[in-house]
Amino acid sequence: MKYALVSDIHANLPAFEAVLHDIEGRGDVDAIYHLGDLVGYAPWPNETVALIEERGIVGVSGNYDSTVATNYKHCGCKYEDPRQEELSHMSYEWTRANSSEATKRFLRRLPFHIDLRPLGGHLPGRSLILVHGTPTLNTVYWTEDRSDAFCTKMANAAGAREGDVIAFGHTHLPYQRTVEGIQLVNTGSVGRPKDGDWRAGYALVDMGEKTSMEFVRVEYDVQKAAAAVRASNLPSDFADFLEAGGKVVARG
Ligand SMILES: [Fe+2]
After folding, report:
1. Are the C-beta atoms of 57 and 33 separated by less than 8 Å?
2. Counting runs of H as helices and runs of E as strands, what totals does the chain give?
3. 239 CB-contact burial (10 Å; exposed 0-12 / middle 13-18 / buried 19+)
4. Is 116 helix (H, G, I), strand (E, B) or coil?
5. 186: CA distance to ligand 1 center in Å?
6. Which of 37, 174, 177, 241 sees the fewest Cβ atoms within 10 Å?
7. How far does residue 43's CA lie from ligand 1's centre (Å)?
8. Residue 212 pLDDT
9. Pick the residue with more confidence: 248 or 224?
10. Mean pLDDT, to the nearest integer, of 48-59?
C-alpha cells in the first residue's frame, strides 16, 4: 500500500489542488489521508473542506479544526512574541467567522487518531498511525529535536510497536526519524510551509514488503494564493509568509 499523506493545508486551495494533481499523476498511490489543520490563515476554508469531502479523503483533526469546530477561545497555536500572538488571533477569528456551519459540522466529525493496517487487520503486522500533533494532544509540537524518551512515550501512547509508522504534521517542518524501531514522519505542510521553501509539501509512505518514505514538494500558483489573502481582510503578513515559505509568523 502506498499512501499520500497531506497535512496542514490551512485553507490554501491552490496549493491543495496542485498537490492532488501531483498525487493523481503518479498513478501508483493507493490512498490519500489528511493529517488535519484544513483551515486557518488563508481565505478558502469552506472550499478546502468541500474538496476534502468531495474526494472522500479521510483524516484526523488538527488543532485548528477542533478549535474552530467547538468555538474554543483560541486555536491552540504557539506564538513567539506579541505581534505573532495578535496575528494568530486575527487568523483564528477570521476563520471562525468565515467557516460555514457545514464546514464546522464536518470538522466536528473528524477523528483524533487513525490506525491503518496495510496488511489487513486479520493479520499481525505493521500499522500506520495518523495524528496531527502527537498521540496525546493535537496542540503539542513533535519537533525533530525532541528526546528519544519523548518519542518513546508518544509511541507508547499511540500503541505503536516496532515496525510501525507514526505520521503527523503540525510543525510545518518535514522530517523523518526512527526511535526503537518505530518510524516517525512529519509530513510537512501543504498550504503553509515554514522551512523557507514556498512549494506545497506532502509525504509518500509505501508500506510494501519494506517501508519507505519520500518527501515531495510541488510548485503551485503562490501568487494567486497571496493575492487572495491580500484581497481578503486577513492580515497581509500571511501573504508574505506564503511567498517566503514561512519564517515570518508564529507556529500554528
Ligand atoms: Fe498547522
Report:
1. yes
2. 8, 10
3. buried
4. strand
5. 12
6. 177
7. 15
8. 97
9. 224
10. 98
Cα 120 to ligand 1 centroid, rounded to whole Å: 31
Distance CA 62, CA 84 (A): 20
Which among 225, 176, 228, 202 is positioned nearest to 244, based on CA atoms?
225
| DSSP summary character for residue 247 | S
The pLDDT value recorded for residue 153 is: 98
CATH number of the domain located at residue range(s) 2-244 in this protein: 3.60.21.10
Distance 98 CA to ligand 1 centre (A): 18
Tell me the average pLDDT of the chain.
96
At position 133, the amino acid (one-letter code) is G
Amino acid making up residue 137 = L
Question: How high is the pLDDT of residue 248?
Answer: 57
Q: Output phi, psi for 29, to 5 deg.
A: -95, 125
Are the C-beta atoms of 139 and 133 separated by less than 8 Å? yes
Distance (Å) from CA 209 to ligand 1 centroid? 32
Per-residue pLDDT band at 78 (split at 50, 70, 90)? confident
**Does the structure show a pLDDT above 70 at 249?**
no
